[in-house]
Design brief:
It holds the Pfam family MFS_1. Keywords: Membrane, Transmembrane, Transmembrane helix. GO terms for molecular function: transmembrane transporter activity. InterPro entries: MFS (IPR011701), MFS_trans_sf (IPR036259), Sugar_transport-like (IPR052528). The protein is mainly α. The chain has one domain: Growth Hormone, Chain: A (Up-down Bundle), CATH 1.20.1250.20. It contains 18 helices and no strands. It has helices at residues 5-8, 21-40, 44-52, 55-82, 85-106, 114-139, 145-173, 178-198, 214-220, 226-255, 258-282, 288-301, 312-341, 345-349, 351-376, 386-395, 397-405, 411-423. The chain starts with a helix and ends with a helix.
Length: 424
């Protein structure tokens, strides 16, 4: 039987690899969210660019989204810790669905409201992922955390295989904006289904008082492991801030065809699905450090094809390489950070504050990444090396992230296992 240290401070389980019903249900909610986002989110930057012909507008929309999401994490932390975290999760999903409905209603006029729309989806993402990460911590243990992350990546990749391909086909086959209207409508419906499914997740007990500046105090404390973990998380965010929207935009610009973008997502997501499944099954805490090093070097090396003439083929080589090796980096990174949160009974009690500290690092990193994108925009048309140079500059940050995390990867789990065996 799985111990529940994350909820009541009991003994942690380092041996259980199976996932219980609540963990599986949480994965199902995340899968629905991933499917809805894969249907429409993949093509939202294209929709905004086609309506505005402005790369800057796409950048400012994403910058607004990232900043507001980070602020929502911090401000909603008190609600999640002291009141009902499940309502935060449901409201976040509902607001995300409402976002696509509003985009649908606005049509091409959505570009006029890019910043307010960025605020809306930022709040929705912040509320959902804050609650999700806290519940994820509570329903997993060090022994099954890699497996949960592997399944999460596998389901996300599965959504990425089918949904964008269907969206690309619909947009290509439909005249005008009809295809976009269809996918935005379907996404809104899927979000509604996710809200309903979330009611089967048990209401989780709230305890403690929210400490607004807990994360900042960790960073000021000499020798605190979070002084290495947070900069590493920032490195992860720098890459994400650009890659989350710019890769799809590059594929569309190279092909001028949404169907090609759907095919790109299908192929790369299929590779990622297999990779996440294998690595999620095989990876153990003691192998995380080596896996993360290999992954960080590999995802940087696969950027090289972008320095060739930009085409669908070079982008596909880059995409397949990224999908193949990114799980080696992201699974150990995520598992180690959450093991660090649960490394002691006291830190587990402050799980909400640590989840917010993690998100603060991601937000800062994403802001840096988007700022770099906006800074090089004026030079993109004058040089064929600006785009691949930007992708390499932000895409190499995982190597720095590994260097910062190298002494922490696997350490929290190993230390906790030792403490547990000693106490036994």
């Amino acid at each position: 039987m799985r111990t529940v240290s994350n909820e009541i401070g009991g003994k942690r389980d380092f041996n259980t690899r199976t996932l219980d019903g609540q963990a599986i249900l949480l994965l199902a909610v995340q899968a629905l969210l991933g499917t809805a986002n894969a249907l429409s989110g993949t093509f939202l930057p294209i929709y905004l660019w086609k309506s505005s012909q402005s790369f800057a507008l796409v950048g400012y929309f994403n910058l607004t989204q990232f900043v507001v999401s980070g602020l929502t994490f911090w401000l909603a932390g008190k609600w999640v810790k002291e009141h009902n975290k499940m309502n935060s999760l449901r409201f976040g999903v509902a607001l995300s669905g409402l976002f696509y409905f509003v985009v649908l209603m606005l049509g091409k006029a959505a570009v006029t409201y890019a910043v307010p729309l960025g605020i809306m989806i930022g709040i929705g993402n912040g509320l959902f992922w804050l609650a999700f990460n806290v519940v994820y911590f509570e329903v997993t243990e060090p022994g099954n955390r890699d497996r949960f992350n592997g399944w999460a990546g596998l389901l996300g990749s599965g959504a990425g295989i089918v949904a964008p391909w269907i969206s690309g086909w619909l947009i290509t086959m439909s005249k005008g904006e009809r295809g976009y209207h269809i996918i935005f409508t379907v996404s809104s419906i899927i979000f509604a289904v996710a809200v309903v499914l979330s009611f089967w997740l048990k209401k989780r007990e709230s305890s403690g008082t929210y400490e607004w500046l807990h994360g900042f105090r960790q960073l000021r404390e000499p020798g605190n492991p979070w002084r290495h973990a947070v900069p590493a998380i920032i490195c992860q965010g720098v890459r994400e801030g650009v890659y989350m929207f710019f890769v799809g935009l590059l594929v569309f610009l190279a092909t001028k065809n949404e169907g090609k973008l759907g095919n790109f997502s299908l192929v790369t997501s299929l590779v990622a699905l297999v990779s996440f499944w294998l690595i999620g099954r095989m990876l153990k805490p003691e192998r995380r450090r080596a896996a993360m090093l290999i992954g960080s070097i590999a995802v940087t090396a696969v950027i090289a094809p972008l320095f060739w003439p930009l085409s669908y083929t070079t982008l596909l080589i880059f995409g397949i390489g990224t999908a193949l090796f990114m799980p080696l980096y992201i699974i150990p990174m995520t598992s180690t950070v959450f093991d660090l949160i649960g490394s002691t009974e006291d830190s587990a009690k402050q799980r909400e504050e640590f989840v917010i500290l993690r998100e603060a690092g991601l937000t800062v990193g994403r802001m840096i990444g988007v700022a770099a994108y906006l800074l090089v925009l004026p030079y993109m048309e004058d040089s064929t090396y600006v785009v691949p140079g930007l992708m390499l500059a932000v895409g190499a940050f995982p190597i720095l992230g590994w260097w910062l995390m190298r002494n922490l990867v696997g350490k929290a789990a190993a230390q906790g296992r030792k403490e547990t065996e000693t106490s036994s």
